Structures are given as structure tokens and as C-alpha cells.
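Researcher: Quick test of sequence recovery. C-alpha cells follow.
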């Protein structure tokens, strides 16, 4: 037998791809401490923390408006299953965290969907889980977006809706006064 035949079967590794965006990233360089385009191993028993404090957080965001610890990701295996998942927990007392429109207050946590958008302040992070088999560690692969992840056209209208329930924005494309039409026209 050759050494290739005797080698252990290589197991795949769960990888969390995260694409970061902030409208002021060009001027403020808040992502300069992040290691982009290179996979990084994280032990399964470690919590991956994101925030401003470099002594506590593995992933640093250089912005005074970011909390010392903004949020944490914990890798785990579901009970009675071979499925590996991530849990996201908001660790900021000042800022709410949104995961696909689910708002998390301080110390709230949920399972991270396999593909989702995480938002806090002006930060947008697209998170995508590539499933693997390894129990000892997972990998992170960080990317930098040049354009907003959330496009304005896909965001719900932030205009208040009057008590009548009819938004004034539906009339913006029409003439200023209602026009009566004959059915045959």
C-alpha cells in the first residue's frame, strides 16, 4: 500500500464566509484589522467575538461607535444530530443587532441562518455558512464588499403610514387630483 492509500480520510471543515460593508469604509478604514481573503481557523470551543476591543475580540472593527464587544458567534452541534450550526448573540448594550429583520437586544441570541444579513448601525454583513464535518474547528473567510449588501430598493418604506392605513406614497406617481374615467376608455 502507498502512503496515499494509508492516509486518513480528509474531513471537510465548516466555513463561515462573511462579507463586510460600511458606507465610510474608504475614509475611516474601520476594517483594516480584519484579515480578508484568507481562511482562518477557529477552535470549536472558542467564541468568535467581533467588536472594538482588541484584547477581547478576535475580529476588530476600528470605530468608536462600535461596542467593545458587539456580537459573538458560537459554533455548536445540534442535539441528537450531526448538523453543525452557529449561534449569534448581541453583546452590545447600546446597539440592537438585526439578523434578517429579527431584532436582537442585549444578550439575545438566535441560530444563525445558513445565509443571512447581519446589521448594526451602518454596518452590513452578509454571512454564509458552508457546511463541513470537522468537530475540532471551523474556518472564517472574510470578504470586503464595495457596494451595499442591502440595496435601498429592497428595503421597506420608512415613511409613516397614516391611521387610514393608506400611504401617501401610492399617490406620488399619480396626478395631484383624482380623475374619473369611463369604463369604456
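Model:
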Amino acid at each position: 500500500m502507498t502512503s496515499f492509500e494509508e492516509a486518513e480520510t480528509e474531513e471537510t471543515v465548516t466555513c463561515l464566509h462573511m462579507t463586510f460593508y460600511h458606507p465610510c469604509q474608504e475614509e475611516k478604514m474601520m476594517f483594516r484589522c480584519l484579515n480578508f481573503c484568507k481562511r482562518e481557523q477557529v477552535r470549536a470551543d472558542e467564541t468568535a467575538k467581533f467588536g472594538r476591543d482588541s484584547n477581547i475580540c478576535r475580529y476588530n472593527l476600528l470605530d468608536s461607535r462600535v461596542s467593545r464587544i458587539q456580537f459573538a458567534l458560537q459554533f455548536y452541534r445540534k442535539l441528537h444530530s450531526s448538523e453543525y450550526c452557529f449561534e449569534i448573540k448581541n453583546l452590545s448594550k447600546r446597539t440592537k443587532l438585526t439578523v434578517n429583520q429579527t431584532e436582537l437586544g442585549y444578550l439575545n441570541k438566535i441560530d444563525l441562518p445558513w445565509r443571512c444579513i447581519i446589521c448594526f448601525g451602518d454596518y452590513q454583513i452578509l454571512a454564509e455558512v458552508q457546511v463541513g464535518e470537522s468537530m475540532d474547528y471551523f474556518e472564517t473567510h472574510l470578504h470586503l464588499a464595495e457596494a451595499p449588501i442591502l440595496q435601498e430598493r429592497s428595503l421597506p418604506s420608512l415613511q409613516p403610514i397614516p391611521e387610514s392605513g393608506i400611504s401617501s406614497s401610492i399617490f406620488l406617481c399619480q396626478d395631484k387630483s383624482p380623475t374619473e374615467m369611463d369604463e369604456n376608455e
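Residues 15-149 form a domain with the Tumour Suppressor Smad4 fold (CATH 2.60.200.20).
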